[in-house]
Amino acid sequence: MKKTITLITALLITVFTYGQTTSPDATKPYVILDSTYNLESVNSSNNTVVDIYYDNTSGNTVKGIQFSFSYDKDVFDTPIITYNNTSGPVGYMSTDVDATNGIVKVVWAYDGASTTFDLIAGNMFDIELPFKSSYSNGTVDGIDFTNDLTAYYAQTDGTDAILGTSDNGGNFIEPAFDYVATILNSATNPAESIPVILQKSADGSTWVDVATDTTAADGTATFSENIDQDYWQVRLKIASGLDASTALSAADANMIAQIAAGVQTSTGIQFYTGNTNQANGITVSDSYMLFARLAQGLSAYTNNPDVLFFTEAQYNTINAATSDQSGTISGQEEFLSPQINGTTAGNFYLLVLGDANGTGLN
Amino acid sequence: MKKLTFILVLISGFINAQSPLCSSTSTNFGYERLNSININGQNYIVNTGWNGPGYVDYTGTPVPTITAGDIITLNFQAQTQGNYKQYFKLWIDFNGNGNLNDVGELVHTSNSQWSGTRNFNHTFTVPETVFNGEVYMRFIMVYSSSPTLCGNYSYGNTVDFKTTITGATDPINHSGYVYGAEEEPLEGVTVQLKTQNKNQVGFSYNLHSEAVTDTNGAYSFSTNLDYNNYDYTIDVVPPALSTPTLSDVNYFTNKLISGVYNSKDYWRMDVNNDGKFSVADLYFMLAYMNGVVTQYTSNTPSTKVFHYQQTPFDWDPLDTDTDDKSENFGYGSYSLFDRSNGDSTIFYLIRTGHRN
């Protein structure tokens, strides 16, 4: 069974990009199903459209064809089959839909007066598939050719011969979801090599990972997936436990000590980066804690994370502040973004505890 | 003149229904009439007054059965109001062909002039060469001139009868219908009656006559050949291959995509004669309709099966079953042998490329 909704692999994406709509061989004429078809969003007023192609490199003249295919009767209402007028004149066409079993039979024959007509290759039929009102989301079986009506083609002498059926998949993929997340240390300092996870959830409670991308030098993680945003809730996740040792130095510890001593005034950001123990504001304890880590060559604090994550709005608030905002904006050790449905890009910030001079995680 | 006196009275006298014979009646009343007539012992009252009617149909009260060779009594009573001469005739359609003017069918002719009421007693002999079966009879009394079989005359009476003749010979008669595969009438189909002498060894039937089916698909044959001396066959001349209609194509397409067939479909749908139905058959029909081809395959007959109703019925399984019977039934038979005389037949034609 072709279950197309769940994981869309890179291979499938590649296949879809190029399509498979030509004869697999020259032994006979073919009707052809592409590898994938775009599933409409559940809330769309448009019907999902499947193109059925015809191709013939056999050299045999074709006057008409007949074949049958199945569709997911639990997902789709009665299909509408349309001849695209690209394979010749309007012709004589008849279809039969067995909605109970999800079977469609198609007969097309040339009905003109030309003795030389030969069916022209191309996107011959459109199959419009309306969603059933009861359908919300879930597994959608792909389109398959069947033997309910034996696939034949009509030859010039009025005899029939076997029509090939080339099924390259016929699978459905949900609407494209493209998103670029940019992870930043500051507005001008992107965070590189941060693993960003794209997640989806049907109920907002149970989330599944869809894809992971690691930020590039410009801080971007790029996602191009097939997720119906009208159904799924979508968010980003960055796991806790990042090691930000590279951002920490004795200079940071000295700066924290100076802030604690009142030699320097803390910026809004430094109320977070200077408060390594995340308690009681910036004190000598924070400086000591960093010195101790550096001296011992530790890769993490004992009871505190290396990194806190913030949304862009939170970061801007913090950055513009002259006082400690941690009472209201605590930051996240494990970053779970707000829903990103309906957006195509977003900036997210991280601050490294102890990185008072703003080196950043790179 | 008496001829002008009762014009208004006579008009009210045209009240009798007409038998299948040609019309015949007097147009004036009041001076002579046929009071009653008795044929072969059966008495019929005709006129008891002077106001007509001029025509009386007694075919619903048959004359007792007449046996060939018998002498039949013909008695009648006529009445005049003056010394007027009357002529009398009786015809019997011995060969049952609806024409009473055939030789030998005028069985009585007489005339007499008198005044008042007079009884006449006659007989006639039924020839032994006549045919068995129901036949019509006509008696006419006419003032002053010899009666003719059909048409109006001034004074007198016409009476029609029907009787049955036995003890004679049996004329070959046959009727029937020609239907299409959907049991709807086929008009314009030629049907042939062929005969051969019963003494003939083997089959050497000669064409006797042809009939063409009417809008109801009906045909009939009436002959003067004695069934006791002749065998006959009824042959249907297969209609030439004809152009299907879009309705035919639609009908067969629905069959194809529904996959629900009757046994008869294995003949009428399979125009390319390859033993199955497909888009190729539909294309071929469309090609024929559009003049792309002028025939299907060289071995595709115009009418693949021709069946007839007998016991057991050949047609019924083709009409109701769903399997391919072409192996057993082949192309059917165009000829119908050994029929009982006078029976009726229904022929079913399955025409290639046609629903009906």
Helix-residue proportion of chain B = 10-25%
Distance between the termini of chain A: 45 Å
| Rg for CA atoms of chain B | 29 Å
What level of helicity do the residues of chain A show?
10-25%
- Major sheet summary line of chain A: 6 strands, antiparallel
- Taking pLDDT < 50 over at least 5 consecutive residues as the criterion, the unreliable ranges of chain B are 1-15
How confident is the prediction overall: mean pLDDT of chain A?
Answer: 93
* Biggest interface, residues from each chain: A-B, 29 and 28 residues
Number of strands of chain B: 17
Task: Write down the secondary-structure element order of chain A.
Answer: HEEEEEEEEEEEEEEEEEEEHHHEHEE
Overall pLDDT metric of chain B? 88
What is the number of helices of chain A?
Answer: 5
**Biggest β-sheet strands, sense, barrel of chain B:** 9 strands, mixed
What is the molecular shape of chain A?
rod-shaped
Give the DSSP E fraction of chain B (strand runs of 2 or more residues).
35-45%
Content of β-strand of chain A: 25-35%
- Number of strand elements of chain A: 22
Distance between the termini of chain B: 67 Å
Helices and strands of chain B: which structural class? Answer: mainly beta
Protein architecture, described:
- The complex is a heterodimer of chains A (362) and B (356).
- With 362 residues, chain A is mostly beta strands.
- The two termini of chain A are 45 Å apart.
- Chain B is mainly beta and 356 residues long.
List the helices and strands and how they pair.
The complex is a heterodimer of chains A (362) and B (356).
Chain A: H1 10-18, E1 30-33, E2 36-38, E3 48-55, E4 64-70, E5 80-83, E6 92-98, E7 103-109, E8 122-129, E9 144-146, E10 152-154, E11 160-162, E12 164-167, E13 171-173, E14 176-186, E15 189-190, E16 195-201, E17 208-214, E18 220-226, E19 233-238, H2 250-261, H3 270-273, H4 284-296, E20 307-311, H5 312-320, E21 335-336, E22 345-352
Parallel strand pairs in A: 1-12, 2-13, 14-22
Antiparallel strand pairs in A: 1-3, 3-8, 4-7, 4-9, 4-10, 5-8, 6-7, 10-11, 14-15, 14-18, 16-17, 16-19, 19-21, 20-22
Chain B: H1 2-5, H2 7-11, E1 24-28, E2 32-39, E3 42-45, E4 55-57, E5 63-67, E6 71-92, E7 106-125, E8 133-143, E9 151-166, E10 171-179, E11 190-197, E12 206-212, E13 218-226, E14 230-236, H3 246-258, H4 265-268, H5 279-289, E15 303-308, H6 315-320, H7 326-329, E16 335-336, E17 344-351
Parallel strand pairs in B: 1-9, 4-9, 5-9, 10-17
Antiparallel strand pairs in B: 2-3, 2-6, 6-7, 6-8, 8-9, 10-13, 11-12, 11-14, 14-16, 15-17
Helix pairs in contact in B: 3-5
